[in-house]
Amino acid sequence: MLGYFGPAGTFTHQALLTLGEGDGEPFGSVAEALSAVADGRVRAALVPIENSVEGGVSATLDSLATSNGLRIVREVLLAVQFGVYVRPGTGLDDIRRVLTHPHAAAQCRRWLQTNLPQASITEGGSTAAAAAEVADPESRYDAAICAKVAGEMYGLETAAYGIADNDSAITRFVLVGGPGHQPSSPTGADKTTLVAYMREDHSGALLEILEQFASRGVNLSRIESRPTKTTLGSYCFSIDADGHFEDARMAEALMGLKRVCKDVVFLGSYPRADHEPGKLAHGASNAEHQAARSWYESLG
Predict the structure, then answer these.
(1) CATH number of the domain that residue 117 is part of
(2) Strand (E) or helix (H) holding 262
(3) What confidence category does residue 231 fall into, taking pLDDT thresholds of 50, 70 and 90?
(4) What is the pTM for the complete model shown?
């Protein structure tokens, strides 16, 4: 069985359903979902990692950085759209208190300021939990901002839909498997995720990390600094790079990182959800690496 960051009715649940493996088991936090994978209670868990509007999901990035062998095995992209859901008989003019998740509130900020200036916005644990709360006739909240699936699940009516300030917002989810998961073979359109820890804080320390990729023609699709939670000013870097760890350029980059970093946490190589192969710089393909190696070996 698969697990996911719940409860039911969230966008993570909606993304999970696209995998065609049933409803799965919801967990109350990203950390709980990943712990269930590590303990063997679920085969893998789906968690959000990045949003095109709000950026990285801190809870996921931090949990993966200390995950002790968990591996990302797949990614899922989901177009995100929000609506205002209310108990039957409630109109937009009646709304004074709105409950939603912080990311939803941020992605609908301009719409809320324009259309619900009279309402106070409270941020809670999830959009689905907001819908469940508003469905209670005794709730002090008048409306929830959530996905359509959550509004319908709890019998709410749509007061407005398509309220996101950016109608092309996409959330990226990752399916995380256990330490014993066998990595997929290279497809030519892959992504590798890792966390790099600086050996020490000095001028050019980040440049040393970036040069391991740049000098080998490896493109980075995401890089974010995260506190190591040890001392103030101590950071690690969560990175997505185009390519598979079996690709020659990526293998050399990973080995280079291991030489210059205090630690490197490899989180997996997996197919890109959009199936788009990354553009390779001249000399970065596997064939060009093999040709160079053959030439080198011929020198002896």
Answers:
(1) 3.40.190.10
(2) strand 261-271
(3) confident
(4) 0.86
